[in-house]
């Protein structure tokens, strides 16, 4: 099962972060307040990890279909800052059948432009009834 080309987004702007904050309801000042982020030891406000997770989910569901999602989980690895560009990709790692439903497990990764892994993800999608 061949994966589509990676999804490249960025460079992310502070406006992107604030817009996502408004959409998600996560108003932690570390994502928009420069002095607060610096006091916490970061050079700038942090992107919301769920923004990158959402980009991973978008890439995967554009490939395999939103209605086919059976499981989706992520682990945040390194912070993403304004100015970073992220690349989301993945690969099918296992195909199998459970109770007559054909499934595929996918491993996902969101890299920053320097190659650092920002988010890892794992998902299971339905391929439909097993024939």
Characterise this structure.
The protein has helices spanning 14-24, 34-39, 49-64, and strands spanning 7-9, 69-76, 86-98, 101-112, 117-129. A five-stranded antiparallel sheet has the order 1-3-4-5-2, with helices on one face. Helix content is 25%, strand content 37%. The chain has three helices and five strands, in the order E-H-H-H-E-E-E-E. The two termini are 17 Å apart. A hairpin with a 2-residue loop joins strand 3 (86-98) and strand 4 (101-112).
Structure at a glance:
This protein is of the alpha+beta class and 131 residues long. It has helices at residues 14-24, 34-39, 49-64; strands at 7-9, 69-76, 86-98, 101-112, 117-129.
Number of helices: 3
What gyration radius follows from the Cα positions, in whole Å? 17 Å
Strand line-up in the sheet with most strands: 1-3-4-5-2
What percentage of amino acids are in beta strands? 35-45%
What share of the residues lie within helices?
A: 25-40%
Overall pLDDT confidence? 95
Order of helices and strands: EHHHEEEE
Oligomer: single chain
Q: What low-confidence regions span 5 or more consecutive residues with pLDDT below 50?
A: none
Task: Fill in the keyword field for this structure.
single chain; 131 residues; alpha+beta; five-stranded antiparallel β-sheet; 3 helices; 5 strands
Topology at a glance:
Elements lengths: L6 E3 L4 H11 L9 H6 L9 H16 L4 E8 L9 E13 L2 E12 L4 E13 L2
Antiparallel strand pairs: 1-3, 2-5, 3-4, 4-5
């Amino acid at each position: 099962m061949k994966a589509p080309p990676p999804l490249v987004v960025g460079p992310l702007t502070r406006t992107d972060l604030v817009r996502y904050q408004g959409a998600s309801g996560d108003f932690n000042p570390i994502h928009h307040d420069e002095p607060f982020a610096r006091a916490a030891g970061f050079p700038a406000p942090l992107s919301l990890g769920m923004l990158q997770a959402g980009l991973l989910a978008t890439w995967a569901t554009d490939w395999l279909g939103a209605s086919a999602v059976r499981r989706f989980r992520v682990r945040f690895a390194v912070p993403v800052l304004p100015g970073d560009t992220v690349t989301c990709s993945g690969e099918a790692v296992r195909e199998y059948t459970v109770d007559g439903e054909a499934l595929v497990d996918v491993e996902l990764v969101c890299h920053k432009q320097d190659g650092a892994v920002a988010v890892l993800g794992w998902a299971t999608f339905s391929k439909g009834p097993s024939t």
